[in-house]
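TOKENISE THE FOLD
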Amino acid sequence: MNLPFYSADDVQSSVSMTDAIEAMKEAFTALSSGTAIVPTRLSLDMPDQHALHLSMPAYIAGGKYITVKLVNVHYDNPQMGLPLVNGIIVVMDAERGEPIALVEGKSVTALRTGAGSGLATELLSRKESKKAVIFGAGEQAKTQIEAISCVRELESIKVIDPLEEKILAFCKGLDPLVQPGSLQDLENADIICTVTTQEKPLFDYKQIKAGVHINAIGSHKPDTRELPTALIQNSKVYIDHLPASKVEAGNILIPISEGVYNWNKIAGELGQLVDEKIDGRSTKSDITVFNSIGNAAQDLVIAAMVHENFLNK
């Protein structure tokens, strides 16, 4: 068997961020309507390696493809100058079941995660948003910046990370409006993206202003979180997929375990918002949160686009 392999360069050259954001509408509406068949991902902890393996299958009813993304997250890698996340996506023909392509997984993960935040930002942030703060200085932070810049005309993007040299290296070569930041920048932020592997809240609720929109995409374990309880309590919270969130969304599960929050307070899924089945921001002072743990339906639509674009060349 000799399958075509689409590299990270192939992914980046064949799918623009604007197209990826549009594709997220299909992924999230399929999740909310039930046409996406996405089992809770298999999570394999490897404590001796300080690592995590994830297996994520997906299929959308009536679609041409089945995909399975295999991801490895090695938490010590960044300190060694290696990628935090590695992975691959197997694309299979839905009608015949045969494997037809392999797609580099890290680039798809970064693209679709950024695109999900871009869509949420387009739907939930104030249209006049100008200032953004990004927590994290890895590859996924780059696509967060690219995505939110596609939907809002930003004048300032501040990057916060514990390692100053990492921030400086990250900002080098990017648009000059991307600069190192600090927690003091939160008081003026219109958009905040959290893209970290931290286990405890990154900031205090009192440090943000009314009307801010937050994309929380770094936490995907039930016992870790990036956002404080008070923020969840005082925000309109939107999620990517309720069944998976009930298993993995630590930003929400921890406040629930504290007895101060419950699932009935969730505003809804992003796909419901795309379909206009629920309301989004109602006032300029609303604090909105998109809490995403990532979903294989997102990988499916991007991997399918990559394969189709190369078939049509």
About this structure: The two ends are 22 Å apart (CA to CA). The longest helix spans residues 105-124.
